[in-house]
Amino acid sequence: MSNSIESAINEVDIPMPMERSSRRFALGDLAFRWTALFFAFLVLLLLAGIIFMLVQGAMPAFKAFGLDFLTNETWNPVKDEYGAWAPMMGTLIAALIAMIIGLPLSFGIAIFITEMAPQWLKRPVGTAIELLAAVPSIIYGMWGLFFFAPFFAKNIQPVLVATLGNVPLIGALFQMPLVGGASGVSVLTAGIILALMIVPFMASVMRDVFDIVPSVLKESAYGIGATTWEVVWNVVLPYTKAGVVGGVMLGLGRALGETMAVTFVIGNATVLATSLLEPGNTIAAKLANEFNEADGLQMDSLVAMGLILFVITFIVLILSKLMLMRLAATQEGRKT
Amino acid sequence: MELYTRRRLINRINMTASVLTTLVGLFFLAWILTVLVMKGVSVINWDLFTQMTPPPGGQGGIANALIGSLMLTLAAVVIGTPIGILAGTYLAEYGKRGAFPEIVRTINDVLLSAPSIIIGVFVYELIVIRQGHYSGWAGAVALAIIVIPVVLRTTENMLKLVPTPMREAAAALGAPQWMVIMQVVYKAALAGMVTGVILATARITGETAPLLFTALNNQFWTLNMNEPIANLPVVIFQFAMSPYDDWRELAWAAALLITVLVLGMNILARSLLRGHK
Amino acid sequence: MTMFRMTLIAGAVLAAGAVQAAEVTTINGAGATFPYPIYAKWAEAYNKETGVKLNYQSIGSGGGVKQIIAKTVDFGASDDALSPEKLAEHGMTQFPAVMGAVVPVVNLAGIEANQLKMDQEVLADIYLGKITKWNDPKIAALNPGVALPDKLISVVRRSDGSGTTAVFTNYLAKISPEWKEKVGEGKAVNWPVGMGGKGNEGVASYVKQIDGAIGYVESAYAKQNKLATVQMKNKAGNYVSVSSKSTAAAAASADWKGATDFYLWLTDAPGADAWPIANQTNILVYKEPNDCARTEAVLKFFDWSWKHGAKMAEELEYVPLPKELVEQVEASWKANIKCEGVAAIIK
Questions:
Q1: ipTM of the assembly?
Q2: Which residues of A touch B195 (CB under 8 A)?
Q3: Residue A51: which domain range?
């Protein structure tokens, strides 16, 4: 794009009297461009700094345990033996649950606001959903612990155990918890609360990008008799998919790294139970729980888990980028 | 005709689902807010805004935490927003293709999901240890690091959505690129960019973890950003986890306040935006 | 400059017989969460009295130790005492500030506070996962006449590293060889069973919500959350309930005089009425501080608090230091801390 603008400028035949000001403009252009570049570079530096610190802090743990650190389920501060397996998997599972619940929720809300709601309702509903993002993370934690978890244990958990618990294959995920009992404190509860926390981020990004779709496009589709759903699915979504994926990434990122809310409701048991209704742990929650009090190898291992969280995020990112590229490629193919 | 019925049925089902999802979202919002209001509103009085955080059993408010949070948030947004916007501009306007922009983009996404506690520890090593003491500035920098990727990402996305013909039209009039960006592109994308800043502000307003190792907290009134400074999230965290009823009440009130504040900012920004248009 | 200031201060001491650390108006401390409420209370009263602001932040015992070593605060606070070797390594000294108790709490329908009795073996076996049901014969034998349900025991413990856990596991390691060998002691351990709550508050709310749960919390949390505390058999063989009296008895029976740098545990104390899971929380300062005026201000604060703050402590479920212990602590200041003004503080 920048090329097209530059060439556009070059092609314009600038009259002589304009020459001085155009040189000044060019200087301004250069200055602006370099400032922007500098700040982009700063972002790079920032991450380099964080990664440097993480790697430096994590080295002793990897030296002590090698790659076993990744697959070891034990976490024993007394014997100074640590492994990241359980929190690592817990992080992925909780984030997956959050996405499974949060994605359709956000999508539905964004469609409702942009395509269905009458004009007078759009703003209040949009603001209300954004308000979910205004609630501090710790409040989600407290609400989750004192209100949602007991509600979940009493009303949702028995239903899940009685229905999904009997379905082959996935039934094992919904067995009555032995450790957590009727507390409602579990990986699934954490996933649900995470979903609620990321919905406003994903929904508001989706809404904003849906709003930007030129009405000409939508109206011409409606004009040939398309239903609202067809317009959303065939016109709005393809037009905005990059923005949508961006919003989803934002949500997934938060789900992976969310700390305070999770640590209240996940039960903080550093084991990997089959049932989603049992307590578990995530890397972020583990950090929040033990960072203040840890030193020596335990501290190094915690930092190493922080590094792992970074790497997980990175892998997820690369995957989503690849997905986006394939999406773009098939789109191109369809067009021709 | 049958095809038409099926299409309409699919439409009906999906639209109903869409309404339902909205209702689910609103239901949970209402639930959380009800809890917040019921627990918090009875504690909201004049003292809350004028008194310092008390010891257990004492009368007090959260005036010091309120002003501290305000200063921290403001400083973080002032530091983080220009960096985020300019870096985002670089990606959207200058660096559409190429390895460097792609790396920055990826790295920004990584930063976006960096657990805030890690950022707290990073700033702790970077500033607190070197300065030899906790400070409001360290807290502001930690929050700014959270602001940057959010603003960067939304800025880039929003700038990209500005149609190319707008730029070309401006360029055709002889405007250099930086003026095209400042005068045309920014204006067209303002709503989205402001949304980004608001989202970033909302995110840092409730952040506890990065402040725990940087700004710390202060039982007393201070405006000095060079010493430990009180702030709402850490006060909420400490008071909510305490066994004393009066502290817990203050925590709920503070939580309600934060929520209302962020909501207020939201509404204000949006109405300003509409006024501008 | 510092020399000059010190001379000035020393001069003032000679002239007026009182230390005037005039420029120190704010002292910063950080560490253990357990004493946070009482330090905040003392700080407010002290500020009203003297204008000096003591800003204490609860970031955890481990954090407190880290911060004082990094010299980012004027004093550190830790629930588990540092060994004399570790103190010497960093040139620090330590003293107790206030005492408290950790207590097992249960949630069983119909069972009230201090109704259930446990001995060392039962408590250890529950946390080892060897006793899994409430109507286990071992529990029933200690509680004749109490209707114990045929219910699984939900074991609750702390998820975060914590001084409370250090005290609790120190006690279990003392009374149970099996615990000592299999699990050990520390601020965080590899728990054989159970689920983790964040903070005392997290544990308290789990216990409240789960019928059949047992957990351990600081006594203030048990009282404020109206949780059913358990009577424990102490070293002398008596069943005692947790109270400021039984905690004070534990402190009184401890051998403070024989402990270097006040490095001792109050757990499993020998006194007849002693609560077995008591602990003191400690303050860490440098023996040769960079800025004597600030350390002196810290000492002055605690001196004032012990003399004027005993009642405040009791109101918040803490146990103030006995008078003899205060004297011993202040004598240790004089012996250890190389600052001119210390002598004047203790007078």
A1: 0.80
A2: 204, 208
A3: 15-65
